[in-house]
Design goal:
Strand order of the largest sheet: 1-2-4-5-6-7-8-9
Shape: globular
Radius of gyration: 21 Å
Helix content: 40-55%
Distance between the termini: 88 Å
Organism: Albimonas donghaensis
Protein name: Diguanylate cyclase (GGDEF) domain-containing protein
Bound molecules: ligand C2E, magnesium ion
């Protein structure tokens, strides 16, 4: 019988499997070439302080500049990069590139009074599992000159389920460097308050699904409120992801949320746009300071 004969479930399944894994290894090869040919780029999405409304930093988000498909979103290639191990090399590139770009942001090279703009970088479980991961981070900081406290690494709960001891060790190594570690996509999986207590996270990012559903779904609203209460009890600052409407803001402020990221404040943008945004932000702050000085 033919491989794609639906009358023969096993052969049919095997045929489909082959097809899927063939497509996957073709994609993996393309990704490898893309990395060698420098076809990935980082976009930066602003993060805002809900008190002052000011920009505090940016999350670096990888995209693939494909010759015929245009800009490809990470959800379409990160899973394959993870499955094939390519995420190690891709992740190292992302880290170096994010540090290099962030080190060039205005306040960051002058060591400005407000302490500079942070850059957040997503880290995959395979990267954290590398024996020399902490050194990789240290190398990226040294090569770029970025101040360690301006780098934040975002880990997901997928990293928590592996080896607790090992993760704790890596996190402590990163802390010694002065780097911050955030828990990403909180609420989307099984990560619990226990995880927040067991690991020294500097920040918690509430998954955008909850923020998005907050106004229509009472359970999502309760989840956001409970997370903010828990985090406050543990002394961990919270950032809400996926804030796309003014109405989200009112509820988040009411629950004591201090920071947010989402289309309301800005979409992920090219590095040059992020630099322009910082320049505008600096001008705004300088004007506000001058006005405050004049009125004294
Ligand atoms: P994430 O780390 O949770 O990043 C936030 C995602 O939410 C981004 O999608 C961002 O564009 C999107 N987003 C932000 N604000 C809004 C909003 O208001 N509304 C909506 N609908 N979406 C919003 P993006 O860039 O497509 O990235 C998707 C995921 O891919 C990321 O989720 C992260 O898990 C992964 N990823 C991205 N870059 C990297 C990377 O360099 N390394 C690794 N390991 N994963 C990455
Ligand atoms: Mg993230
Ligand atoms: Mg997230
Ligand atoms: Mg995510």
């Amino acid at each position: 019988r033919a491989k794609d004969d639906p009358q023969d479930p096993v052969r049919f399944y095997e045929g489909r499997m082959d097809e899927a894994s063939r497509a996957r290894s073709a994609l993996a090869m393309e990704l490898r070439d893309a990395l060698r040919e420098d076809r990935f780029e980082l976009h930066f999405q602003p993060q805002a302080d809900l008190g002052s409304g000011g920009v505090t930093g940016f999350e670096a988000l990888v995209r693939w500049r494909h010759p015929s498909r245009g800009l490809v979103a990470p959800d379409e290639f990160i899973p394959v990069a993870e499955a094939t191990g390519l995420i190690r090399d891709l992740g190292a590139w992302v880290l170096q590139e994010a540090c290099r770009i962030a080190a060039g942001w205005p306040e960051n090279c002058r060591g400005g009074a407000r302490g500079g703009y942070r850059v957040s970088v997503n880290v995959s479980p395979l990267q954290l599992a590398q024996p020399d991961y902490v050194e990789t981070v240290q190398d990226a900081l040294l090569a770029s000159g970025l101040a360690p406290e301006l780098l934040e690494l975002e880990v997901t709960e997928a990293s928590l389920v592996a080896d607790h001891e090992r993760l704790l060790e890596v996190m402590q190594g990163l802390k010694r460097l002065g780097v911050r570690v955030a828990m990403d996509d909180y609420g989307a999986g099984l990560a619990s308050m226990h995880a927040l207590r067991s690991f020294p996270f500097d920040r918690l990012k509430i998954d955008r699904a909850f923020v998005d559903g907050m106004l229509s779904d009472p359970q999502a609203l309760a989840m956001v409120e409970a997370t903010l209460l828990q985090a406050r009890a543990l002394g961990i600052p919270v950032l809400a992801e996926g804030v796309s409407e003014e109405t989200h803001l009112a509820a988040l402020r009411r629950f004591g949320c201090r920071e947010a990221q989402g289309y309301l404040f800005g979409r992920p943008m090219q590095a040059a746009e992020a630099a322009k945004l910082i320049t505008r932000e600096e001008a705004r702050l300088a004007a506000a300071a001058a006005a405050a000085g004049a009125s004294r």
